[in-house]
Specification:
The chain has 460 residues and is of the alpha/beta class. The protein folds into two domains: 7-76 and 350-458, Aspartate Aminotransferase, domain 1 (Alpha-Beta Complex), CATH 3.90.1150; 78-347, Aspartate Aminotransferase, domain 2 (3-Layer(aba) Sandwich), CATH 3.40.640.10. It is built from 16 helices and 18 strands. The strands form five sheets. It has a seven-stranded mixed sheet, with helices on both faces. The chain has a four-stranded mixed sheet with strand order 1-2-3-17. Strands 15-16-18 form a three-stranded antiparallel sheet. Helix 4 (78-91) runs antiparallel to helix 12 and helix 5 (101-113) runs parallel beside helix 12.
């Protein structure tokens, strides 16, 4: 589908258009990740400060994308920047390539925040964390199939690129969804060995799990689908009971929700302790990071003290089938952990998270008032400091409910909001930061009012 940029936006973002044309000559689609693209060209940024982004043409935007939620203190936070420069200056290097004190310090910090986590292993991204979590579940259980929920995203690799955004005509019955690849190149093996579950439907989920309990190593899930559709409390508690009964590991993917709903993530709110937790985004303070944590007996499978280093050429390293291998040159990077520790410490200051939640709710309330004024059915759906704007009168409990929303109108509004200096990728959720101000909130609500008026006039 061809999308035209509003005339005003096209005139204001000529350098982004020129950059995109240049980038497409050497980068497929002009972007380094598919999620950064939107038609006909994404806006290219020059700098950021606080709650604001500035594009190549110098236009200012209030940023609600926040690097897909990672920047909970916005752009250029001084405490985080100082922690990074201090680490490099005092250590005399950017990275050691060896163990260092910040690894244990961050791991200890995580275990105090998340009661379900007894030990931690670091990765370079949330995607790497979920990949490792699945490997752990397979190794610990000895079973070979994975269950995941329809509409949930856990990274851009073969094992989980299934039924994230399927066409409903291919997705099967609502109570018994089918595995649908979301990308070319996903081997049939993963389609056959991945069981898709219906989110927020415990009865149907139980039926599927009981039928396949001898095959399923673990269930991986987002406690808040897409970062904004929460699991029902009873669904979470019943799922935990069921997985324990059936000896299926519960992997809670808190890459989006860790530190954004409460310091202890969604599991703290629900009172549910998973077997394995994955973290990322906020944990890195704006740098690439991931972490896998959980029960000692599971995470200890990664220990090289009772396995082998498969890369030690010629060494008497034991049987490879007894090894749960995990490695990465930049795992536990000292600069990243310094930024992450500064972030977590700042979040733990009295009142910081409380004010973030108050401001998020204030923005949600004001936006709902604006849409009600224009008599447009709309819900702000979310939890904690993340929400999305869904143009519907229906309850939104799962991926399929989103198919009934007015996506066409939402897209038109989003493009006009870009023209008015409100930034998030069109159709994407809103992430709040601790540096968004009341003035930002007022400006955002006013921009929505103006955008709705513009779109209404265009459709007359």
């Amino acid at each position: 589908m061809s999308i035209e940029v509003p005339e005003g936006l096209a005139g204001r973002t000529k350098k982004s258009a020129e950059y995109f044309k240049r980038a497409t000559q050497v980068i497929p689609g002009g972007v380094s990740a598919n999620i950064k693209y939107f038609a006909p060209y994404p806006l290219a940024m020059e700098k950021g400060k606080g709650s604001k982004l500035y594009d190549l043409d110098g236009n200012e935007y209030i940023d609600y994308l926040l690097c897909n939620g990672a920047l909970i203190f916005g752009h250029g936070n001084q405490k985080i920047n100082s922690a990074v420069t201090k680490q490099m200056q005092e250590s005399g290097t950017t990275v050691f390539g060896t163990p260092h004190r910040l690894e244990a310090e961050m791991a200890e910090t995580i275990t105090t925040i998340f009661p379900s986590i007894e030990k931690v292993r670091f990765t370079n991204s949330g995607s790497e964390a979920t990949l490792l979590a699945i490997r752990l579940a397979m190794a610990y259980s000895g079973k070979k199939k994975l269950a995941k929920f329809e509409g949930h995203y856990h990274g851009g690799y073969d094992r989980v690129l299934l039924s994230v955004n399927p066409e409903l005509g291919e997705a099967g019955e609502e109570e018994h969804p089918q595995a649908v690849p979301d990308s070319m190149g996903v081997p049939d093996y993963y389609v056959r060995n991945t069981i898709i579950l219906p989110f927020n439907d415990i009865k149907a989920t139980e039926s599927i799990l009981r039928a396949h309990s001898e095959e399923i190593a673990g269930i991986i899930m987002e406690p808040v689908l897409g970062g904004f559709i929460p699991a029902e409390a009873v669904f979470m508690s019943e799922l935990r009971k069921l997985t324990s009964e059936l000896n299926i590991l519960l992997i809670m993917d808190e890459v989006k929700t860790g530190f954004r709903l409460t310091i202890g993530g969604a599991q703290n709110l629900y009172g549910v302790e998973p077997d394995i937790t994955t973290l990322g985004k906020v944990l890195g303070g704006g740098f690439p990071v991931g972490a896998v944590g959980g029960k000692k007996e599971i995470i200890d499978l990664l220990s090289p003290t009772h396995g082998s280093d498969i890369l030690s050429s010629g060494a008497a390293s034991g049987k490879k089938n007894n090894v749960l291998f995990h490695s990465g040159t930049y795992n536990g990077h000292p600069v990243i952990l310094a930024a992450g520790l500064a972030t977590v410490r700042a979040l733990k200051r009295p009142g910081v998270m409380d004010q973030l939640m108050i401001n998020t709710q204030l923005l949600r309330d004001k936006l709902e008032e604006v849409y009600a004024k224009h008599q447009i059915p709309m819900k702000t759906v979310g939890m904690g400091s993340i929400f999305n704007i869904v143009l519907t009168e229906r309850a939104v409990q799962n991926y399929r409910d989103l198919k009934h929303a007015n996506m066409n109108l939402r897209e038109k509004i989003d493009y006009e909001l870009l023209n008015l200096g409100i930034y998030t990728k069109p159709m994407t959720r809103y992430s709040m930061s601790c540096v968004h101000t009341i003035e930002d909130i007022e400006r955002t609500a006013a921009a929505h009012d103006q955008a709705l008026t513009y779109v209404e006039e265009q459709e007359k």
